Amino acid sequence: MFQSAELGHAIKKATYKKEVPLLREALLAAQYDLLKKAEFPVIILISGVDGAGKGETVNVLNEWMDPRHIETHALDTPGCEELERPSMWRYWRVLPPKGKIGIFFRSWYSDPISAALHRTAKNSELDQQMERIIHFEKMLSDEGALILKFWLHLSKVSQRTRLKALEKDPATRWRVTEKDWKNFKIYDRFRIVAEHALRQTSTPEAPWTIIEGADPRYRYLAVGKAILQALRSRLDAPESSCHASVRLPPIIPKLDPLSVLNRLDLSLKMEKKKYEESLEKYQGKLNLLTREAAFRKISVVLVFEGLDAAGKGSTIRRITGGLDARYYRVIPTAAPTDEERAQPYLWRFWRNLPRLGHFAIFDRSWYGRVLVERVEGLCSAADWMRAYGEINDFEEQLIRNRTIVLKFWLHISREEQLRRFKERENTAFKNFKITPEDWRNREKWDQYERAVCDMIDRTSAEISPWTLVEADDKQYARIKVLKTLCERIEKELQQ
C-alpha cells in the first residue's frame, strides 16, 4: 500500500515557486465559497510516520488559507475530563461546523494504532476500533461532511535521514525527541500495523491519500492540490448530484393491529398510601446508591420519551428528588438551534454526556429523529432510517465506557391524553403545557404509534433495552421508573 509513496517524488524549486501562488489563490477562493455556502464542513486528517512533515504541512495549510476559518486540533494525551467519557467525546466536541475546515493533526486513529503498535491492545481490538471508526466516518459523510485523510509516508531509510537532519540543525533540533528514535526502532512493526489500519478504513466515503513526505515541496503541493480538487468538486457539483437518490429498504406493512404498545395493561394503578411509601423507599435507596464510592466509577444517562402529557416531567422530578443537585443535569431537547443545525445530528447529545459519578437526564432525546422528525417530515426517509444504526452505535460507546443507559417510553391511552389536555386548558397554572402543536400531534396518533413500535424494535438491544411504562396512572409510572433505575444501578455496582 505504501510502495507508491517510496518512489522518490520531488519537485524542483522553480516549479514550486511558479505553482504555489496559483494554488494559494485557488484554495482561498474555494475556502471563501465554502464559507459563503455553509452547506457542509471539511474534516482534514494529517497522519503518518514520525518526521514525515505532518506539523509543517499543517502550518503551510494555515498559511495558504485564511486561518480564521480553520480549526486546527492536535489532541494529545487525554485529560481527566476526557478520560471520564467515551474516547470519541473529545473529537465530537471539536468537529467543525458547516462552512468551516477542521484539521486534525492527531486524530481518532492515533491511539488505536499506538496501542496495537506497543502491544497494549490485541490485533482483534484494533480491528474492532477500525470498524467503529468506519461507522463514525460513514455517519459524518452521510451528514454531509467532506472527509480528507492524508497519510504522509517515509521509507525507513528516509525516516532515519530526516530525523538526523532535523537533529543536526539547531533550529529544528527540538522536533526530534527520544520517543521518535524509540519509534524508529520499531518502524517495521509500525508499517505493518499502519498499513493494516489504512487498508481497512480506506472507504468510498473517506479514502486515504498516501503521500511521500521526504520532499517538502512535493508534499505541500500534493496535499494542497488534493484539498483544492476535493473542495471544488463538491462546491461546483450540481445540487441534484450532491443529494443522489438513496435506495431505501422497504417498510414492512402491518398485518394485524397487535403491537408492543397496545399490549400494555394501562389499567395498572397504585394506591396513594403505597405510592407515598414506595416513593420514600426508592428515592432514599437511589440517594444511598449514588453515595457509594463505586458509583464514582460509572455514569448514568436517562432517556425519557413518550406521548404528549404522558408525565415525563413529573417523573423526572421524582428522580431528581432523590439526587444531589451537584451531580445531575436535566437536558430538555427542543428544536435544534442554528449552531446545532451546523453540526451532525448527534453532536448536541455528545456534548452533554456526563462525567463519572454524574447523571444526564434527557427529557426527549436523540430519538426525536425517528419519532417527531420522521412523522412530521422534518428529515428525509434516508436520514431517519440510517439513524437507527447510528443511535445503536452511539449507545454502545456509552455502555463500553461504563455508562448506564436507561430508556423509558411512557405510554398513555387516547382517552387519558384527552383528559389531561382538557385539564391543562382549564387550569391556569398548567396552560403553558398545552399548545396547538399538541392537538396537531394527537391527530397523527397512528403514525406516531407506528414510529414508536419501529423505534423499539430496532433500538431495544440487550445492552440498552427500552423500558415500557404504563403511565395512565402517574403514581404507578413514577414508581416503576424509580424501581427500575435503582435495580439497574445496584446491579452495576455489584459488578
Model description:
By secondary structure, the chain is α/β, with parallel strands linked by helices. The protein has helices at 13-37, 54-64, 80-83, 89-92, 110-117, 123-142, 156-168, 178-185, 187-201, 216-236, 239-242, 272-291, 312-320, 338-341, 347-350, 372-375, 381-400, 414-426, 436-443, 445-459, 474-494; strands spanning 42-48, 70-74, 101-106, 146-153, 208-212, 299-306, 328-332, 359-363, 403-411, 466-470. Helices cover 51% and strands 13% of the residues. The protein has a five-stranded parallel β-sheet with strand order 2-3-1-4-5, sandwiched between helices. It has a five-stranded parallel β-sheet with strand order 7-8-6-9-10, sandwiched between helices.
User: In angstroms, what separates the terminal alpha carbons?
Assistant: 45 Å
pLDDT < 50 runs, ≥5 residues: none
- How big is the Rg? 27 Å
Number of helices: 21
User: Which structural category fits the helices and strands?
Assistant: alpha/beta
Beta content: 5-15%
Give the rounded overall mean pLDDT. 93
Strand order of the largest sheet: 2-3-1-4-5
Helix content: 40-55%
How would the global form be characterised? Answer: elongated
Number of strands: 10
Largest sheet: 5 strands, parallel
What keywords describe this structure?
single chain, 495 residues, alpha/beta, five-stranded parallel β-sheet, 10 strands, 51% helix, elongated
